[in-house]
């Protein structure tokens, strides 16, 4: 696995965050139109997104080569359980502590947990660029979400549940950075999310007044959108790019979700964004700019200001003595390898 972040993979992970943000708008519209409990929506979202992708892959014959080895089964089950835990814990946190607290803790703690876990496993601190982006993103998230309401009796329990959601998302991000032979990102998303939705259905049935379904066409269209765009497409893009993007960077790019949801709410739902929210949105966008992949040095350059073919005499002598005639050494990327 390469440790360099490629622009295409960076864009795929960022796309996942943006598409997740549209899911918040669709979920709010679905709650208004069909009156479904949030946990029921989450169960249908996982089951529908995984099921649609599973059917599409089966129709294209892309599941014929799916391996049934122990590593494949383990990763699918782990991802399914973590996705179900994330959804259940997050929505339970929203019910107890409110949207602001749940969002700040769940989305804010995830990149911190990933950064700490990566630093411990790699035995080195994140790069200065990652630390700057982390500070910008967390400050932006606080300003964008805004201050929460006064603490209530369920705030502490809600914050703890949001922390569980953050840990589930961080673990899922870390697990899916590794490649498992015979299991690509699309089959992984399809099988894991279908299983995750099945696991979440009984939880939703016990937590609410049964498993209600939309009663009109508008509700079904919104539910289909939730399944296809911010679930199947978003997680497929995220898991695909994740194989070549540092885990901390990926977790930070997931913060594009609240940014997209906020901008969409202002444009589509006529909600107002105060000065603090505008500053928060700018800081989140700045964090993405700081994290963007830097272009590696040209392979025709051996050092700054020295083109290949114009080597010094000492360099040419070393090349001849090493019997490496005709081989041009590519320069190292200016920024070095991306942080793990």
From TrEMBL:
<comment type="similarity">
    <text>Belongs to the EamA transporter family.</text>
</comment>
<feature type="transmembrane region" description="Helical">
    <location>
        <begin position="131"/>
        <end position="148"/>
    </location>
</feature>
<protein>
    <submittedName>
        <fullName>DME family drug/metabolite transporter</fullName>
    </submittedName>
</protein>
<feature type="region of interest" description="Disordered">
    <location>
        <begin position="299"/>
        <end position="340"/>
    </location>
</feature>
<feature type="transmembrane region" description="Helical">
    <location>
        <begin position="43"/>
        <end position="63"/>
    </location>
</feature>
<dbReference type="Pfam" id="PF00892">
    <property type="entry name" value="EamA"/>
</dbReference>
<feature type="transmembrane region" description="Helical">
    <location>
        <begin position="250"/>
        <end position="268"/>
    </location>
</feature>
<dbReference type="InterPro" id="IPR037185">
    <property type="entry name" value="EmrE-like"/>
</dbReference>
<keyword id="KW-1133">Transmembrane helix</keyword>
<dbReference type="InterPro" id="IPR000620">
    <property type="entry name" value="EamA_dom"/>
</dbReference>
<feature type="transmembrane region" description="Helical">
    <location>
        <begin position="219"/>
        <end position="238"/>
    </location>
</feature>
<feature type="compositionally biased region" description="Basic and acidic residues">
    <location>
        <begin position="331"/>
        <end position="340"/>
    </location>
</feature>
<feature type="transmembrane region" description="Helical">
    <location>
        <begin position="154"/>
        <end position="175"/>
    </location>
</feature>
<keyword id="KW-0472">Membrane</keyword>
<feature type="transmembrane region" description="Helical">
    <location>
        <begin position="99"/>
        <end position="119"/>
    </location>
</feature>
<keyword id="KW-0812">Transmembrane</keyword>
<feature type="transmembrane region" description="Helical">
    <location>
        <begin position="274"/>
        <end position="291"/>
    </location>
</feature>
<dbReference type="InterPro" id="IPR050638">
    <property type="entry name" value="AA-Vitamin_Transporters"/>
</dbReference>
<feature type="domain" description="EamA">
    <location>
        <begin position="12"/>
        <end position="145"/>
    </location>
</feature>
<feature type="transmembrane region" description="Helical">
    <location>
        <begin position="72"/>
        <end position="93"/>
    </location>
</feature>
<feature type="domain" description="EamA">
    <location>
        <begin position="157"/>
        <end position="291"/>
    </location>
</feature>
<feature type="transmembrane region" description="Helical">
    <location>
        <begin position="187"/>
        <end position="207"/>
    </location>
</feature>
